[in-house]
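A protein record pairs a chain with a discrete description of its three-dimensional fold. The shape at a given residue is found from the number at the same position. Here is what such a record looks like in full:
>
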Amino acid sequence: MYDNVVVSAEWVAGRLDSARIVDVRDAWEFDGIGHVPGAVNVPFAEFRSESGDEGMLPGADTWESLLSAAGIGPDDDIVAYDDTHGVFAARFLVTAELYGHPPDRLHLLDGDFSAWNREHGSTTESSAPAAASYTVDVPDHSPLVDYDTTRAALDDPGAVIVDTREAWEFEEGHLPGAVNLDWRDLVDDDTRGLKPPEELSAVLEGVGVTPDTGVLLYCNTARRISHTYVVLRSLGYNDVGFYEGSLTEWVERGGPLDGSVPDDVLE
């Protein structure tokens, strides 16, 4: 278990000079609405690709260029945020982990930019980050699981396959035996951050996800599972599989479904 996976605004406020703060919103939001002081902007679209290394990952060369341009080094503490309860920021952090950034140096701002703004100041001023040279170091062990591993998990009684999409999407069609856990069920609408730990445990246990189970996550394009993955990691879950291909690959390869998934659902 890593400490400080999900961090408070106060935690971030005390580390503005030491951590690299990454805002993954669009540039017009970063520049026009404002951002956390000292943050750099790496919009979601820039680290999302359909022709990268695996599934939607951008590719190692693209990732190195993005982080170098953002002034991020391979050992920096990174805090990421968005204005959508953290789901896009979580995707940034998972991408960093999959490309070898030390997991104990990856942090999600609890809440989002709106939550930060309630208690802390923002700015529309930005400056070019200091030059950095980022190098990908793909780890020997990764939470990534492929199609074949996911297919085998359908018959594994020790694995819980978790669909993190909305209920209506799940009802349209899902992997056989999967349970539905909408990623937003882990978020408190009032605070915009995570629900308290006891509530999170109740939600997870309600669908059979406990620390002693093997968990395999999927959605449509691996964005929503990023948030759930970060939450589970913050709670000390050690056996979590991240199916990067998710339903997009599953349907393309003819994987079995309970129900059917219309093409437009995967967009």
Observations:
- The CA atoms of residues 247 and 263 lie 10 Å apart.
- DSSP finds ten helices and twelve strands in the chain.
- The domain at 6-119 is CATH 3.40.250.10 (Oxidized Rhodanese; domain 1).
- The mean pLDDT is 93.
